[in-house]
Design goal:
The protein is rod-shaped and about 115 Å long. The chain starts with a strand and ends with a helix. Helices cover 47% and strands 14% of the residues. It has helices at residues 40-51, 61-66, 110-120, 130-134, 160-170, 178-199, 209-232, 240-279; strands at residues 2-6, 11-12, 15-16, 20-21, 70-77, 80-87, 93-97, 103-109.
Length: 281
């Protein structure tokens, strides 16, 4: 856990204040004794967020007024202290310090540091990102996650699916639905590929959607009814010559249908060739 933070920029009545010591359990940040409402409380919380790898603190009024500065801090895990320093001027680097907060030659990139914290806090669960998880619990003025009506979101534009996914992963329950999620992704990709193939006529389609299908079914039923009515009429009035001409018409219609199929197939091939020529495949 975080047990201490200090900085020359942290002042009280114009003097550098002593290190801020954190205790197990609830820690409370109080405003001034005379009740003034200043930026100190939010800045202190954002400084803690900065220690945990956040970036909002760098852009706050506190840094603009005081100027760039270094925050020194100490974590303790399993009884062992770990000392660090992070400068607002170079926030992508976290320096390792000795127990007097003197910088050593070793340092972490910010990603390496948050990965280290992820392991120390036992959050190294499959597909769980450290900052994406803990930022949901830093609800501080100045951060974009203060909508009390959507408490799971880390930012306004995030979808609820992503927010819920993070909570499922945090409680190590994602493994129970991971297989279903992967299958859904595959099925969605296959459906998209099929629709694209239909769109660019790479595969023939005699029925264009449900509306067209229903229309064709209605026409078929109408033609069946017409055929039955014609069959009930006197066939004696029909000459052999008319029957022969009717058969010829049917043969020609069938030939036209076959030719139209070949035309559509050739159009699909031409479309595919054009795409290959345009993309260089």
């Amino acid at each position: 856990m975080l047990i201490e933070m200090r900085s020359k920029a942290f002042k009280e009545k114009g003097k550098i204040r002593p290190p801020i010591i954190f205790k197990p359990g609830l820690n409370v940040i109080l405003g001034g004794a005379n009740g003034e409402n200043s930026i100190g409380k939010s800045s202190a919380l954002l400084a803690i967020d900065f220690i945990f790898g956040g970036s909002t603190y760098v852009k706050t009024d506190a840094v603009k007024q005081v100027g760039h500065h270094t925050i020194y801090f100490c974590f303790e895990f399993e009884g062992a202290p770990y000392y660090f320093a992070r400068d607002t001027r170079y926030p992508d680097t976290v320096h390792l310090c000795d127990n007097t907060y003197k910088l050593t030659e070793d340092s972490y990139t910010l990603d390496e540091f948050t990965d280290w914290l992820k392991v120390k806090y036992h959050l190294d669960l499959p597909e769980l990102k450290f900052r994406n998880t803990i930022s949901r619990f830093f609800r501080i003025y100045g951060k974009p996650n203060c909508d009390e009506k959507q408490p799971l979101k880390i930012r306004p534009q995030e979808g609820m699916e992503g927010a819920i996914d993070t909570m499922i992963k945090l409680f190590d329950r994602f493994k129970f639905i991971e297989g279903y999620r992967q299958n859904l992704t595959i099925q969605s990709e296959q459906q998209k590929a099929f629709r694209d193939a239909r769109k660019y006529q790479f595969i023939p389609s005699l029925v264009d959607g449900k509306a067209k299908y229903d229309d064709n079914v209605e026409k078929i039923e109408s033609l069946k009814l017409a055929r039955e009515q014609l069959s009930q009429e006197s066939n004696n009035d029909v000459s052999k010559e008319q029957i022969q001409l009717g058969n010829q018409r049917l043969a020609l219609k069938n030939e036209v249908y076959q030719l139209n199929r070949k035309i559509q197939q050739n159009k699909s091939k031409i479309s595919l060739l054009n795409v290959n020529l345009e993309t260089g495949l």
